[in-house]
Design brief:
Strand order of the largest sheet: 1-3-2
Radius of gyration: 16 Å
Largest sheet: 3 strands, antiparallel
Strand content: 5-15%
Structural class: alpha+beta
Number of helices: 3
Number of strands: 3
Shape: globular
Length: 83
């Protein structure tokens, strides 16, 4: 990790990023990443070659922007509204 903490979390404007960058940016474990990919919550990576898997930066940026949307209660979760 660099001395400048912020530099470690900068992702490019376009292109692809590998799994270690995705994990750092999202702040999750590898197991959580793949569990959420399998559930359809997170975007799938693409194969750039037989041994190289990466995520499109635009997909990761779209995922991050979803975190900024107002949180909706889960189905079955009670809300503060008393009707």
């Amino acid at each position: 990790m660099n001395q400048n903490y912020a530099e470690d979390f900068i992702i490019p404007q376009e292109g692809f990023v590998r799994q270690p960058v995705v994990l750092k940016v999202l702040g999750i474990s590898r197991a959580t990443l793949w569990r959420r990919i399998e559930s359809g919550d997170y975007p799938r990576p693409v194969k750039l070659s037989p041994r190289v898997t990466a995520w499109r930066v635009k997909d990761i940026r779209a995922l991050i922007s979803r975190f900024d949307e107002p949180e909706q209660p889960y189905e079955g979760e009670e809300t503060d509204d008393k009707a």
